[in-house]
Amino acid sequence: MPPAHPFDFDAVDGDKLKEECGIFGVVGVTDAANFVALGLHALQHRGQEAGGIVSHDPETGFNSARRFGYVRDNFTKQSLMETLPGPLAIGHVRYSTAGSKGQTAIRDVQPFFGEFSMGGAAIAHNGNITNADALRRELIERGSIFQSSSDSECIIHLMARSLQRNIPERMEDALRRVEGAFSVVAMTRTKLIGVRDPLGVRPLVLGKIGDGWALSSETCALDIIGAEFVREIEPGEMVVITAEKGVESVRPFRPQQPRFCIFEHVYFSRPDSIIGGRSVYETRRQIGVELAREAPVDADLVCPVPDSGTPAAIGFAHESGIPYGMGIIRNQYMGRTFIEPTEQIRNMGVRLKLNVNRALIQGKRVILVDDSVVRGTTSRKIKEMILDAGAAEVHFRIASPPTAWPCFYGVDTPQREKLLAATMSEEEMRSHLGVDSLKFISLDGLYRAVGEAKGRDSKCPQYCDACFSGEYPVEPADMIQKGFQMKAAE
Amino acid sequence: MPPAHPFDFDAVDGDKLKEECGIFGVVGVTDAANFVALGLHALQHRGQEAGGIVSHDPETGFNSARRFGYVRDNFTKQSLMETLPGPLAIGHVRYSTAGSKGQTAIRDVQPFFGEFSMGGAAIAHNGNITNADALRRELIERGSIFQSSSDSECIIHLMARSLQRNIPERMEDALRRVEGAFSVVAMTRTKLIGVRDPLGVRPLVLGKIGDGWALSSETCALDIIGAEFVREIEPGEMVVITAEKGVESVRPFRPQQPRFCIFEHVYFSRPDSIIGGRSVYETRRQIGVELAREAPVDADLVCPVPDSGTPAAIGFAHESGIPYGMGIIRNQYMGRTFIEPTEQIRNMGVRLKLNVNRALIQGKRVILVDDSVVRGTTSRKIKEMILDAGAAEVHFRIASPPTAWPCFYGVDTPQREKLLAATMSEEEMRSHLGVDSLKFISLDGLYRAVGEAKGRDSKCPQYCDACFSGEYPVEPADMIQKGFQMKAAE
Amino acid sequence: MPPAHPFDFDAVDGDKLKEECGIFGVVGVTDAANFVALGLHALQHRGQEAGGIVSHDPETGFNSARRFGYVRDNFTKQSLMETLPGPLAIGHVRYSTAGSKGQTAIRDVQPFFGEFSMGGAAIAHNGNITNADALRRELIERGSIFQSSSDSECIIHLMARSLQRNIPERMEDALRRVEGAFSVVAMTRTKLIGVRDPLGVRPLVLGKIGDGWALSSETCALDIIGAEFVREIEPGEMVVITAEKGVESVRPFRPQQPRFCIFEHVYFSRPDSIIGGRSVYETRRQIGVELAREAPVDADLVCPVPDSGTPAAIGFAHESGIPYGMGIIRNQYMGRTFIEPTEQIRNMGVRLKLNVNRALIQGKRVILVDDSVVRGTTSRKIKEMILDAGAAEVHFRIASPPTAWPCFYGVDTPQREKLLAATMSEEEMRSHLGVDSLKFISLDGLYRAVGEAKGRDSKCPQYCDACFSGEYPVEPADMIQKGFQMKAAE
Amino acid sequence: MPPAHPFDFDAVDGDKLKEECGIFGVVGVTDAANFVALGLHALQHRGQEAGGIVSHDPETGFNSARRFGYVRDNFTKQSLMETLPGPLAIGHVRYSTAGSKGQTAIRDVQPFFGEFSMGGAAIAHNGNITNADALRRELIERGSIFQSSSDSECIIHLMARSLQRNIPERMEDALRRVEGAFSVVAMTRTKLIGVRDPLGVRPLVLGKIGDGWALSSETCALDIIGAEFVREIEPGEMVVITAEKGVESVRPFRPQQPRFCIFEHVYFSRPDSIIGGRSVYETRRQIGVELAREAPVDADLVCPVPDSGTPAAIGFAHESGIPYGMGIIRNQYMGRTFIEPTEQIRNMGVRLKLNVNRALIQGKRVILVDDSVVRGTTSRKIKEMILDAGAAEVHFRIASPPTAWPCFYGVDTPQREKLLAATMSEEEMRSHLGVDSLKFISLDGLYRAVGEAKGRDSKCPQYCDACFSGEYPVEPADMIQKGFQMKAAE
């Protein structure tokens, strides 16, 4: 789904897939909500549209705040944070929901909260439930009243109807009915709970902070609060954490071969995070190295498309021996959206954010390294800017394979027909973009860069790479119902 | 003067000198204010606190809007821009004013406007008037009423009292009474006016857009509106521009040897700007090259302090052959200020914005390249983060000489005693920062990097480098009156 | 429950009972939400804290907006009203909810909405459900998730769980489970629905506007939209209205002797409304006449406590022949609340809103006519102001009997022990207030003023007068559970 | 000048003349600005558009705040008032300025402030300077820069250019150059200053509060702060007040026969104020008595047009013996303006604020008492509402003579041709309004009601009644320059 406004910050970054959520929780610290706010700030790249925090305090019970906009603009204020007391809190940042018509309403902003007979619970969900439509119909039929258009709300209603006597077991009940990808952080009055789906599509890590514990989408958010990274929550694992008893682990699901999202390595996660024991920065640099080996080209300058192409460009430059330089300068003062913008602004597009370093580019054969090509719109504009500035040649090197299939596991992708690689061959794309050469890293090359020395195991792939391969590890039931055509079996 | 709040965005960037203003004007285009807004957006790095635009339209006369905050948050809105019609407009972004007690009031935000008997005029000023206090006393004695605490307001009052019959000549009269550094963009009902002081301390460039003309602090702002860079306004030159007659040039001042601010090359200007015929990016990269020659060190990684240290780090890595890498990751979602922040936030400091790429740093001997050291506060924090992450050695390489003297020409510097280099030798600074080595580029090395092959001409320096040398090309009269001690003659 | 802030507008009016809600709905007109906004503006005296509107449009479905503050500040804006299209809409204004801890959250603001398998429905409720706590526990036990702390939300959950196949019948099911006082306006995609409880405690009237229909708490809101008053909805009646078929009436409840709230005549309703075929203004004037007969006193001036005492004062003056005059002047510019007020403001109290007309009062024996005495706080302050201004005597005449019992049917009353008349005799109250005489109208006198020539039928009272008599027509089950002591049987 | 928006609160009240300002100052109390805020709140009826306060504190010097909107919404907040410390403060509320094109800018909001060589001064002005245009041209010619479009700013520039050595004497100098009507409250670092023009057109009173002193447009604002009314400042008097020396009085102007504005008695002042030793309420009641004698009519009901017609209606009813009743009910929740209102709202007009009490009016012969008729627009609408409600006859009785001339002394009046009485005879007006009878009080009757037993002295009128008589006590020089035609000498 394209962003609401054609020339907001996202439009400039618009040729990207969008992670939909970041989640964070902490227990056993003073003023837990402050830590959650910091954690969400560090996870802001996973969702910029809105954020929410729920905390629990023995005296005032559950409290919550949900706001549109950046964490730093809302959840740093003393006056707001004072309304979120207590030693236990969870939070969520989001981009947008599958299913919401038009813009997100504040009621779609997580965490979701439910009052059960044994007490309240709040949940924050990263991922996407692929059978949410069917579950929703069933729940409404039985008398549940939905307050949001979010697929994630099903979980809390399933919990409300569970016959189990305690909340963690109700959550197990609920999640066993749910299909798709989910990393969940939840809380009761005393417990912090974390779960990953059996495939482990979305990340979730555990940290230790003083006598307390933290759960986070990524390790970079542990760093900001000064927590120590303990380990990843494993695919199919559920942890129930209290300040007193520490971490208890259960396995509510039938075991499966994990399929972690490989695009987290390519683009979603922050370069300073550690995933699956690997530095994301180093992986991306290595993708650049692989790319330089797979698709070398004689040129004068390796130039990243800022900022996501930078590590791969550094790797490409290092491997190829071609000088690295900042051919494109990013305006640090771009914000996210323009409310009621002038016609002028609407026509500016990428120039509002990027400017070519003309003196560096002029007369040079330039290799532009970008992380991915989705619709190709931004790539075309950047190519034009580079040529206008007098580049002799423009070569695109892309740090991921062609993105030819939509993601149904918690990532915002255009409809399949909008994906450039769904309708064009590599040569057609090169011609469409109007560049001298265009090369994507191979799927095997990507697997090598993430540490799989032998490349992709095509029988039993080590990652979810559906966006490249069309091989979906969980059938997207709701989408098939709506007419989505799976890749024909070969 | 330290920023108002100790942990806002500026505090994180706090160990920097701050350019106080960016100015922009355009004539001969439809809806000139829209172009000015874009230009100011591209000049936002020169002043983030507030901005203002004045436009003139034959039907509605002069209109103005002044706002706190970023250009993109204010001057992109249709509803505001519609109040600024007409083919002629000027604008200003500012950081803060010498003289305002506490925070800037909206009345201190430029452009300033005055109604004279022959019509109105608006002016926007980049620089600082070193005899403003004396002028102000004299003007008040004669019955002028000041509306702001800005030194720049003197200019408009001097114009109001001039006996000349037209506004450009009144401006000449006024500027001949003024001492210090000034680049001015002004407008009457029909004319766009640009002036630089005889030393040419602050930049000002001329561009052509369609049938119209633009004046800008930097060329990067010409790029954003699609204007062609024509030439710099020369030191001591005044241009009077109309859509009909084009550019007329006069020389109101006694000629002097130009002394352009060398720190514009080091830090203030955007890397994609061209100054004095030189690419700022290339100059900075060259500083890194010089630095690698002057102060080599055996190490494993060259790492920029983002983002201002990046070009010099690239140059240093290239010259030294040591690999370049992103050891410090910047959070893209940092804003400028935290209103009523929590205690937690107040104690976070630099960690809110920067995180160490631990996997890259660990065990390595790291060269950190930064543009300057002012008070040394941020440098210390960054060093601690790097060491906490397991670096084996930390070597600072600074892309400017020691900053030992305050600037009185339009840059916000701490009082002299707060400048680390004013009270410590290089070795004392190294020890204070707690790093394995600390080296600044030499003054001659810096001059070589900006293209002066023979280095600095100590008899007649080619640039204003008072912040390094203590040699002030214009006597800071007001400051001396307030007790500032000039460097003793040698 | 006392107002949140001790010196807001309500504090000045603080010695009043507060109606908790006004409801309004319309079907069969273009842009129904605009009519609802006007209707709610006319009903603003019934609830000033917040308001909400839900509309339905065949193209965009259900839309809603809920806002804190006055109707005129929110629901008059083009930009908001454009989001509420369609020929069918309902709305609600509210004061506060029994049950919400601290301040009302936006999620407590009605109308409430539920999506059922046969489509959505929205409801707006005026009154109070006396068994809401028990219902809520039962619904949660079965898996319903409540989103608000409002008793009214029970209705929509009961509807969600009904086995009936259409929404009006589900509403019948739901309301048969509910005890207490309720006037309800509801809507489906095509139907406007109105219901009154069997006792008809709260008002609800039907109006005709063009080809459409309106439901309103009071007739004054029909006047503002230019609708013709048709009739009252009868106690125990449910009307289902469509633009096509007009009004269909059903009787879902077992018939009972109606008990309309007599305090609506005394204070809640607007003087220009017609209730039970009687003008509220005329009733109040007649109360003044009765009071002058029951409790005459020799004096120089009849002075209303503005504004609610005015009609009774006019009646009192007319009957007694004593001149009528404005001895107390109201500041028209008082708003509702002071956010973070100064100490000074906090100590001002009633003087911020009322000032004595000293020249009129001085030396006079003054009869002050007020509608009611609740806690007596404002009455004391007014007495002091009058005496400070030099009145010779002060006589209070109150247009209602002593308020000795709380209301549990949708009116915000202090706890019983805070009611002056619950703990003091009339003479004790006189002495407490420090006035020369204090007289309340008798219960029989009040019944005569509302047209019951023979006064109150003590066997089978014609009205609900529980706040005066302690005789509650519906047992307040939740409150008894919480410890409320009913009046001992005599 | 009509209000900016055709259907705001003022439009509903739109057929009124508008006082343009209220002024207040206090010295010798702790936190003087708080007292000024309260005083301005009590004077809000004199100007609702904006307000400003300047205070002085020995430590922080002069501080000021200017805001659009009601005093109670701005100047009651702790956070704002803390920025206005000190024992001396003045303030101003305003409606709008002659001269400002379109809406008032914040820079037009008083008090105005000037820094002179001997220190700063702030002034607040109620009235209008009739030679302001000429003064402004002269001052600009000499180099003064005006910051506002307000006529009042001339005073501060004239002060800046005075050769006197202290501020009170500079103010004398300035005011001797000024023509027209002015009551001024001003302050230096230590002195509170009050001045009335020689004719004493606008009011100004002196009060005592503890050891301090207050100056106010009206006595009702002394009441709210608990100050004792001392006396009026006399026409042509200047008082200079310090906490230490108390009140010193000087007479800077040539004595003249005073001409206080008689419309202050009719409409502008609050009924609880005392002017010239007379109660405004009592004067208005007496106007009603005179009117009943001058223009009796056989009818069933005397009904005020709320709220300004109420005292005269009470007097009329008392004198005529016809019952008094509230035939028109005012909605207490009307605000001042509707931002971007819907079409629906735009067409509502007076019905948004007033509703007819149909049950009272029906079948009756109604006397409507209003304070004045300006353009007649509201009168027509009210007449229609009354007839629609079934009145048998409608008789207008107006508590002032026909308003046939604009005011140039600080009151906002329509251009002469918009005044109904400027173009129509009384009978033509009656026919235009479509009522059964229409009578205005005679000029002599009005003078009798204000206590001049022999009526108006046509040789030497005791009041300024230019709006009725066309006899202007000060020649409106600027307006004559702009083409205004004075009444021909008879």
Automatic annotation (TrEMBL), chains A, B, C, D:
Binds 1 Mg(2+) ion per subunit. Binds 1 [4Fe-4S] cluster per subunit. Residues 21-244 form the Glutamine amidotransferase type-2 domain. InterPro entries: GATase_2_dom (IPR017932), Ntn_hydrolases_N (IPR029055), PRTase-like (IPR029057), PRTase_dom (IPR000836), PurF (IPR005854), PurF_N (IPR035584). Pathway: Purine metabolism; IMP biosynthesis via de novo pathway; N(1)-(5-phospho-D-ribosyl)glycinamide from 5-phospho-alpha-D-ribose 1-diphosphate: step 1/2. [4Fe-4S] cluster binds at C261, C407, C464, C467. The active site is at C21. It is an enzyme of class 2 (transferase). Its cofactor is Mg(2+); [4Fe-4S] cluster. The keyword Nucleotide-binding does not apply. Transmembrane segments: none annotated. Pfam families: GATase_7 (PF13537). Catalyzes the formation of phosphoribosylamine from phosphoribosylpyrophosphate (PRPP) and glutamine. NCBIfam families: purF (TIGR01134). This is Amidophosphoribosyltransferase.
